[in-house]
Amino acid sequence: MSAHLHTALRLAAEALPVLPLRKGKVPFGNCSACARNACGGRPNMKTPGPCTCPNPCHGWAAATTDPQVINSPTWARAWREAAGVAYHPGGAGLTVVDLDNAEAIAWARTSLPVTRTVPTTRGEHWLYRGAMQSANAVRPGVDIKSTMAYARWLGPGVGTVTGLPDVVRVLAVRVPAPARPTAITVPAMGGGGKCPHRTPTYLDRGIAMAEQRINQAREAVHATVYRTFLAVLSTHGRCGCLTETHTARLFTAAQAKGESPRHCTDAWTNALTTLGL
Question: For residue 143, which of 162, 120, 113 has the smallest C-alpha distance?
Fold first, then answer.
């Protein structure tokens, strides 16, 4: 039994759907019967279809926890040629934040909750409990791998897996079309003006981090502004701690990067609407 097959069976026993990877860290191609989706299943590997091919076909959709499939004769050749093992995070109820360089890691350490981390060739994988939409290049050097995606198995990592936070979920949200200009709306002070999460310092630090995120945007400024507003509101928009002073700080940072007052208002309004505030 190859080392990769042994690893795959062990992971499958832990309810992690697995599949073999060939050289280049990519899945094995479809078999001749499924080439170009001739079988009619899983078009473009985006949605599982009716195909019941016993081969490790259709990329991430081939991931399984069934030891009989993993150890079957039809998968044997793939394991002999395999260069690694991958898993389907979303299928295990997980999300992987793939940090591809030192700058991305530095951003995560100041912006994301602590969770289990796995070293990679160029960066780190941060694992969270909970599945979400996968998305590439949500910010420089950052991809999200969860549903309909695969991640390389690089070891168990260190730390405890924590729950998927809103600040990660909003990274995959597409920037909506600009809304009509409206007055800035700040959520009611339902919490008496005090942030119930930790302390007022927590809010001040969060606003400062949001300003820094906007200031450091090198491209896609409008998208960065919207996602930053969305992240701030997802954390503080319901507790009543945000004031017009906090909002003005964010708008000032955005305008310093070239955003117009109208674009700031549109982004803020769209963020409020997305979160139902």
Answer: 120
| Alpha carbons 116 and 113: distance in angstroms, whole number | 10
| Residues in contact with 245: Cβ distance below 8 Å, sequence separation at least 6, in sequence order | none
Report whether 275 contacts 235 (CB < 8 A).
no
pTM for the structure as a whole: 0.67
pLDDT digits (tens, 9 = 90+) for 5-18: 999 999 999 999 99
Per-residue confidence at 74, pLDDT binned at 50, 70, 90?
very high
Q: How many helices (H) and strands (E) does the chain have?
A: 9, 10
- C-alpha radius of gyration, the chain, whole number: 22
What's the distance, CA 85 to chain centroid? 20
Place of tokens 């390389």: 152
**Residues with Cβ within 8 Å of residue 6, at least 6 apart in sequence:** none
Who contacts 120 (Cβ-Cβ below 8 Å, separation ≥6)? 98, 99, 100, 152, 154
Contacts of residue 30, Cβ cutoff 8 Å, sequence gap at least 6: 36, 37, 53, 55, 57, 58
Q: What is the pLDDT of residue 199?
A: 67
Q: How far apart are CA 250 and CA 6, in angstroms?
A: 51
**What is the spatial distance between Cα 219 and Cα 271, in angstroms, rounded to a whole number?**
20
Please count the CA atoms within 13 angstroms of the CA of 257 that sit on its side-chain side.
23
CA distance 130 to 5: 27
DSSP tag of 181 = P
CA–CA dist 118, 86 (Å, integer): 14
